[in-house]
Specification:
236 residues; seven-stranded mixed beta sheet
Amino acid sequence: MPAVPSLSVIVPARNEAPTVAELIARVRATGLVQEIVVVDDGSTDATREILTRLANSGTPPLRIFSHQRSHGKGAAVRTGLAGVTGGIVLIQDADLEYDPADYHALLAPFADSSVQAVYGSRNLRPGNGRSNPAFYWGGRFLSWFANRLYGGRLTDEATGYKVVRTDLLRGLDLRTSGFDFCAELTGKLLRRKVRIVEVPVSYRPRSRAEGKKIRWHDGLDAIWTLLKIRLRRQQL
C-alpha cells in the first residue's frame, strides 16, 4: 500500500488565546504532522504572544504568519497555503471544537493514490454535540444545497475538517476571504468532479460566549458562493 504523503496543517487563528496552546499541543501529539503553519489573522488578544512562545518549544516547530488586521478565515488559509511544503494540507481551526485525535482517520484514505480530498463529517459520528439549532440546521441545509447543485453525496459540507492534496488545493484559485472559503472549496472540488471521501469525526461545539465567530449571514454568503461557482461558465 502506498505511503500517505507528508502532512502540513494550516491553523487560521484570531483571538484564540484561551485554546491555541492546547490545540497546538494536541496537533503535535499526533506524531503525524510535518509542519504546522499558523496564520494569526489580526488578533487583538494574547494569541500572537502565545504562538511566539510556542514556536520553537516543540516538534514540529511552528511557522507563524501574521496579518496586521483581520481579513477572514479564507484569507488566512491562502496565506498559509503559499508557504506549506507537505503533500497534503489539513485545515485546523484554532479552537477545540475539532480534535486532532481524528487525524489518523482523516489521513487513512490517502493511502489510496486516487483519493484527492477528505472531509471529516460530524454527522456520521453518533453522540456528537450540536451547535444551536440555527447553526446545526443551517449546516445540514448547506450539505443538501451543495448536493442538489453538484450531484454530490456530502453529509457535512460545512465541516471545519477539510483535507486536500496540496497540488490540487493550489490549483483551485481560491479567492474568498471569509467563512465562505468552505463553500468555495467544496464548490470548486465538486465542479471538477473530485470525489470527496467523508470519515466520521468528533465535535464539541462552543458557544458564542466561548468565542464562536460564525454568524447567520455567513450562511447566506456560503449559499451564494456555492451557487455562483455552479453557474460559472468557464472551466475551473
